[in-house]
Design goal:
Layout: H1 3-18, H2 26-29, H3 31-42, E1 46-50, H4 56-64, E2 69-74, H5 77-89, E3 95-98, E4 112-118, H6 129-139, E5 140-151, H7 153-161, E6 174-180, E7 186-192, H8 196-205, E8 208-216, E9 234-241
Parallel strand pairs: 1-2, 1-4, 2-3, 4-5
Antiparallel strand pairs: 5-9, 6-7, 8-9
Bound molecules: S-adenosylmethionine.
Length: 242
């Protein structure tokens, strides 16, 4: 199985755990609402949500911007089934697509004013990352924005390993973690480790300017503490195609 097939299988397996209509985790209170506020501020007319999952953020964007045309794409057909079922039940006009977000060939150049990606870009393999950002840039109009909800990569490394040793050397490796819901239930999440320097270099190589970068939250219970609940701060990126 390729890594993408593994990611699809993970989210197909766990799709029922992601199904939600109200905040369920720390990220639902911190990074996702911050992204939606930023989208509202930009007031874009055509939006594509990359790695939209079961559509939680996509629906929040549609609520905030009811006149906009909103698309979502995800690699997991099971996550999308939930998204489509919710759309049928409460129609907001969201158009969902099944596919890998590294290939946006179904969309013409300069289709969208704004792209969003809520906690999905850390699944992009290191070797595909520049091309992913180039593809994102291609479907954006000149001057368009890419709003990314990400995790602080150095804090995540530090929390998981207890030091910054190996932070650079382990770039490209896949790590499997658990996040905890406010209900106490645990849920598997993965990330492909990169340094912040590499990530931002790749964004810039693809033609984006980082016009805003905001850290949200503090590290929770770093390594060695007895509580099993751990969490890294989030990072809100606003990129512009310049
Ligand atoms: C942590 S979930 C976030 C889902 C949604 N954005 C949210 O905020 O609820 C990550 C999502 O990214 C999707 N994903 C990961 N890699 C992908 C890829 N290469 N192409 C499309 N979707 C991908 C997964 O299937 C999953 O639905």
């Amino acid at each position: 199985m390729t890594l993408y097939e593994d990611i699809q299988a993970l989210y197909n397996r766990d799709s029922h755990l992601w199904d939600r209509n109200k905040p369920k985790s720390r990220s639902d209170f911190l990074i996702r609402p911050a992204m939606v506020d930023m989208m509202l501020h930009l007031n874009s007319k055509n939006i594509l949500d990359l790695g939209c999952g079961e559509g939680y953020v996509t629906r929040l964007i549609a609520n905030a911007l009811p006149k906009s045309e909103i698309h979502g794409i995800d690699i997991s057909d099971k996550m999308l089934s939930i998204a489509k079922r919710k759309e049928e039940k409460n129609q907001q006009g969201i158009i969902y697509h099944h596919g890998n977000m590294i290939d946006l060939s179904r969309f013409e150049d300069a289709t969208f004013d704004t792209l969003s990606a809520a906690l999905s870009t850390h699944y992009i393999p290191l070797k595909h990352e520049v091309n992913f950002y180039k593809e994102a840039s291609r479907v954006l109009k000149q001057g368009g924005y890419f709003i990314i909800g990400a995790i602080s990569l150095e804090a995540l490394w530090n929390i998981n390993t207890g030091s910054m040793k190996g932070y650079k050397e382990n770039e490209g490796k896949l790590f499997k973690n658990k996040i905890e819901r406010i209900s106490g239930k645990k849920q598997e999440v993965w990330h492909i480790h990169k340094t912040t320097e590499t990530l931002e270099k790749h964004m810039q190589e693809a033609g984006f300017t980082i016009i805003e970068k905001a850290k949200l939250g503090e590290p929770i219970n770093p390594y060695n503490e007895t509580s099993p609940i751990k969490g890294a701060p989030y990072v809100l990126y606003v990129l512009q195609k310049t």
